[in-house]
Amino acid sequence: MTHSTKIISSVIAGLIAMTGLSGTAKAAAPDRLGDYYGQRLGWSACGNGFECAKLKVPLDYSKPGGKRIKIAMIRLPATGKKIGSVVLNFGGPGVSGVDALSANKAMMSAAIRERFDVVSFDPRGVGRSSPVRCLGTLGLDAYFAADPTPDTRAEVKQAKLWAKTFAKACETNSGKQLLRHVGTGEAARDMDVMRSALGEARLTYFGWSYGTYLGARYADLFPKRIRAMVLDGAENPDQTGAEFAQSQANGFRVAIESFLRDCFKAADCPFEKRTVGAALKRLEALFKRADRAPLRNTYDGRQVSEAVVRTGVMAALYSQGSWPILRKALASAFKGDGTLMLGLADGYHGRRPDGSYSNAIEALAAINCVDHPESACPYWPVKGTRFTKKVRAEGSPPIVVVGTTRDPATPYALARQLAAQLSKGVLLTNDADGHTAYSGGSSCVERQIDRYLITAVAPRPRACAGAKA
């Protein structure tokens, strides 16, 4: 799974406090989809300078005359001479683009906001767009605390029971009809309807993390309908779900070692033995301790289990800016207090202060099980359609792929692989820590991408120095 570092970073801030030109859309509408491609969006003010609208799309593209759903959209109008719209996806899968953009007007640079309407959306199954729902608050609290490393027959049985319970709850509360149609292939087709409704002959798109997979699927379907496309923190669509999981495990290993080396330089580093090997052993001992008996928590009545501690550590690795809070969380956890770890895990899981959850993780599971049915979805109530192949996007303009050298969630090797398989892929390398690059502190990356989005002229492949701690 992947998540947007932009969303997680906003949670970290709260924890620290605790401690080519656009034109009219002329591309022909596919057969029987004319009503969708011909629609006009009814934008209305929705606060803080933003405008919101709903896009009508078919639930099932093979039956466009059947049930319709609505895709929630948000835009920030251009501040100057407008080129067109740039459509953003923040990753996940499961991240609400409406929430992410409305929470951060400065997500894109002032230069981009001057020339483009900045647009985002909740993909089908996410947020305000026919959301997938599974368990309630108490159920999700327990599900996220469940043992991630079962090592006895009873624990393995319990893990299987949780998988069955979660899948059954998704079927009961969302229905098979919706669950069949939340995959990335159909979300990519929604984006082409969106392109037309925005009045764009060709799409200008920026995707982070899972948003690169969505962008690659769009490029596979509509290569000649792209004006410019940036894929930052790339996934490789030629990988199976299991292969991606292994790549991600390797990426987090690189990231934790980078965090530890930086930690050893800090006065508040909680590791007594300042070697990577010794520190990794101390971390593993912490996980085992939490597995035997949950850490205490001064925030509420939940147990800080091994799963919560592992998730808290993982969440903090998404952004170098969160490393100071991870040092504090580990120092407390080593003393038996898991409160800060719980806060980090809550941010990753989308748990709000009132105890309710966004549907980000439920949507992530539903989308991944449709996209990668070969993955660990043995009890899922609907069958997915496997999409594992190289994406060439023959006939597309240059597509810019951005990779960060020590990215935990989408390792740099995947960006190299995607750029190589695209017929016109251009690789930008960000030599830095953290998940994704743009707005992450590298003026070199931002400058190259901004120029490309505005002019539609791709940069040459190059490396940029990232932000420093």
Compose a concise summary of this entry.
By secondary structure, the chain is an alpha/beta fold. The protein folds into two domains: 32-131 and 182-238 and 389-465, Rossmann fold, CATH 3.40.50; 242-349, no CATH class. It has helices at 5-18, 34-37, 97-103, 110-115, 137-145, 153-174, 176-180, 184-197, 210-221, 241-263, 276-292, 306-316, 323-334, 339-349, 360-371, 412-421, 443-455, and strands at 44-45, 51-58, 68-76, 84-89, 116-121, 203-208, 226-232, 399-406, 425-433, 462-465.
Protein architecture, described:
This protein has 469 residues and is of the alpha/beta class. 43% of the residues lie in helices and 14% in strands. The protein folds into two domains: 32-131 and 182-238 and 389-465, 3-Layer(aba) Sandwich (Rossmann fold); 242-349, no CATH class. It is built from 17 helices and ten strands. The protein has a ten-stranded mixed sheet with strand order 1-2-3-5-4-6-7-8-9-10, sandwiched between helices. Helix 9 (210-221) links the parallel strand 6 (203-208) and strand 7 (226-232). Helix 12 packs across helix 14 (339-349). The two termini are 26 Å apart. The model is unreliable at 9-26 (pLDDT under 50).
